[in-house]
Design brief:
The protein is of the alpha/beta class. It contains twelve helices and eight strands. It has two domains: 161 residues, Rossmann fold (3-Layer(aba) Sandwich), CATH 3.40.50; 92 residues, ProC C-terminal domain-like (ProC C-terminal domain-like fold, Orthogonal Bundle), CATH 1.10.3730.10. Helices cover 52% and strands 14% of the residues. Strand 5, helix 5 and strand 6 form a beta-alpha-beta unit.
Length: 270
């Protein structure tokens, strides 16, 4: 793996987070990472931060790298794929993180037999605590898939999904951190509203989320069972749970995940 070069096309938030995670958590040498973006200022900032190499052109990054990560906006994917179709080699693996863009869509633009992998990462990959959902095209061998999974493993949990569930993975996992951030933000505001200083409320809430998540990670109990343990009859928690149920907390969250999944499916249609 040390001799294989990695190319990143698109230095936006998610692409940059992926590159940072691969370099800082994966132990990949910065000199093995090439970055390219039409926004040259953004490209230069990422390259300087990682001490990686800026690719002067798509031709250069395609020539130098075996693994090509496509991290452009979904609406720009078609034109990019059209631009690189004559540059792709049989030994290369095209790895897309563009939301809503299917493996078959990518294969349609590129030479027959091109090896394509679709990913749905999330931003905690930056600190090695993320989730990367992976789906492979039919021409990708098990050994090649394992190569890519080995490359991504330092970023967090790697889960294989069939292509048919990748939009669902986007709605639940790719978008998931935003739901958690909103929950944390709201909890902190609630703490302030009952008289706790914002900095103290922030520490309390963040640690609550970390602690609860770690308990679920280490325990085989269902989340409802864990919740029931701290919900005493006629107690403070039961009073709070009643308000959340009456306010439609669960149904709102489920609807949010469904809406994000639906939007992921729509991205392919523009």
């Amino acid at each position: 793996m040390e001799t294989e070069r990695i190319g990143l096309i698109g230095c936006g938030e998610m692409g940059s987070a992926l590159a940072r995670g691969i370099v800082t958590k994966g132990g990949i040498k910065p000199s093995a990472v090439y970055v390219y973006d039409l926004n040259k200022e953004r490209e230069a900032l990422l390259a300087t931060e990682l001490q990686s190499i800026t690719a002067e052109s798509l031709e250069m990054i395609a020539q130098q790298c075996r693994f090509l990560f496509i991290a452009v906006k979904p609406q720009d994917a078609g034109s990019l794929l059209d631009s690189i179709k004559s540059l792709v080699r049989p030994d290369q693996i095209i790895i897309s993180i563009a939301a809503g863009i299917t493996v078959s869509f990518i294969e349609k633009y590129l030479p027959e037999g091109t090896k394509v992998i679709r990913l749905m990462p999330n931003t905690p990959c930056l600190i090695g605590e993320g989730v990367v959902v992976i789906s492979t095209g039919t021409t990708v061998t098990d050994d090649e898939r394992k190569e890519v999974e080995k490359l991504l493993k330092p970023l967090g949990l790697i889960i294989r999904f069939p292509e048919t569930l990748m939009d669902a993975a986007t709605g639940l996992s790719g978008t998931g951190p935003a739901y958690v951030y909103l929950f944390i933000e709201t909890m902190i505001d609630a703490g302030v509203s009952i008289g706790i200083r914002r900095d103290v409320a922030s520490k309390l809430v963040v640690q609550n989320v970390i602690g609860a998540a770690k308990m679920l990670e280490r325990d085989t109990h269902h989340p409802a069972e864990m919740r029931n343990i701290v919900t005493s009859p006629a107690g403070t928690t039961s009073s709070a749970m009643l308000v959340l149920e009456e306010s439609g907390f669960r149904s709102c969250l489920i609807k949010a995940v469904i809406a994000a999944t639906k939007r992921s499916k729509e991205l392919l249609r523009g």
